[in-house]
Amino acid sequence: MTAPKNALDFVYEHAINHRDTIYLTQPLGGGQVADYTWGQTVDQARRMAAHLKAQNFEQGARVAILSKNCAHFIMAELAIWMAGGTTVAIFPTETADTIRYVLEHSGASLLFVGKLDTWEQQVSGVPTGLPCIAFPLAPKTTYTTWDAITAKTAPLAEQTRRGATEIAILMYTSGSTGQPKGVMHSFERMTAASQGMVDYLKLYLGKDTAVRVLSYLPLAHIYERAWVECASLVDGRAHIFFAESLDTFLADLNRARPNTFISVPRLWLKFQQGVFAKMPPQKLARLLRIPILGRIVGRKVLKGLGLDQAILASSGSAPIPPALIEWYRSIGLNLLEGYGMTEDFAYSHASTPAANAPGCVGVPLPNVQVRISEEGEIQIKSPGTMVGYYKRPDLDAEVFTADGFFRTGDRGERSPSGLMKITGRVKELFKTAKGKYVAPAPIENKINANPLIELSMVSGVGQPSAYAMVVLAESIRPKLSDPAVRADVQAQLTELLHSVNATLSDYEQLRMIVVASEPWSIENGCLTPTMKIKRSRVEAVVEASLPGWYEAKGPVLWA
């Protein structure tokens, strides 16, 4: 009996059947790009695989990649698999301490270094003596370069076959709740989930339309790795464009003209705020309501965003305000929400043409089993479920039920039609002094729907009542030195507080809105690399200020 194909087997076929089809487009700077066909991509991977094999690493050896998204990230991943190894990708924004932890915990035998913005601050995290190879777009280093190796190394002749249960990827979580954990994904489960993703994309694009996508969310995160890279390895017809930098993002989008676009809530909000900076929201809403003209205006807005060709747009990684989804739909973008985790290879729930609603994350994807525990926790059994946590069997015992369901830690509700609504994190629930639990996520969604707000966090453990801390929109922050603008913002936030409280039960109502003194960022430790809020970090920063805030008068305070 022939074993089912895994992702690497598909890749070997693409190198033959799609040899001259462009697979990857890499910006080189100054408007220049390099295109790599399937034949070229696999040839490069085979050459690097031959080099890795010559190092005589153990079977399954962990080989790490520290790089922003680029064509050589995917080539390196394929080379690692061909050489019998396991890939360990590290977020390109991680600190030196976290880089060292991941490299040492995983027992990495080698590190690929690629595109990075803060290499000078990160290099101290690379253990002395660890072999390193530099990608073509890497910062200046003393490491042997990819091009030098592949130029002198013949391609690996054999087609390495990997066993179904061998570990393909060791994915370290972004650490929003503490030290990153290594999530093990086998070739079998990774491929099963990826095949399901390809089938899902065809629901919207049609079976004969090739995916065109811009890759810019970190490939070290499961969302991009699964739905962009691994799905493309199975499909073989996708064309992946890479973003060069934040400054060139719009040009990169217009080069790609993607028909599929995935992002995270914070970026969807920033795109909207960029539109509002050019046209006041009230004026835009009025124009959109006019028949015929509204469609023309919406099309123009989408073209300005580089998304006028997008047939499918998706948001994941964190909750997105329903009002934001409705706004994108009003301008003609089919924005949907999905749900997945590192532990299930991002293969869990997605909105479909027949089952979708703003505020819901869709229905279970094919072959996904889901149930809600008595405590309200979502529990899932997915084709992409992880093998387990690397070196942490104790955690495996905590997160899996006796019958094999993964405890997500998320609270949820299912409608009679099967639509799932995420209502918060089990561990994020907190009690105020009133003795009742408050779920912050639904309240934050109400706050985040306001165009003034970039991010918000609701907290108040043991306090007389809950409070909200907010980061104002980037377009507003520079104007706050003007007393008139500051007064207007204060008035709008006061109105926002009253309108949100009017929708909440007495024990959930907010005592105040506090404006953060500086934006939360990856750099100051308040956001994870995937831009989720590190609640414990923010709460620790403001802890000393809480007594004064609760004693102060007024609904809006400035930290």
UniProtKB/TrEMBL annotation:
A GO CC annotation given for this chain: membrane
Keyword ATP-binding set for record: yes
Cited InterPro entries: AMP-binding_CS, AMP-dep_synth/lig_dom, ANL_N_sf
Tagged with keyword Protein biosynthesis: no
GO molecular function terms listed in the Swiss-Prot or TrEMBL record: ATP binding; long-chain fatty acid-CoA ligase activity
Pfam families the UniProt entry points to: AMP-binding, AMP-binding_C_3
Keyword terms: ATP-binding, Nucleotide-binding
Domain AMP-dependent synthetase/ligase: 17-390
Gene3D superfamilies per UniProt: N-terminal domain of ligase-like
This protein's name: AMP-binding acetyl-CoA synthetase
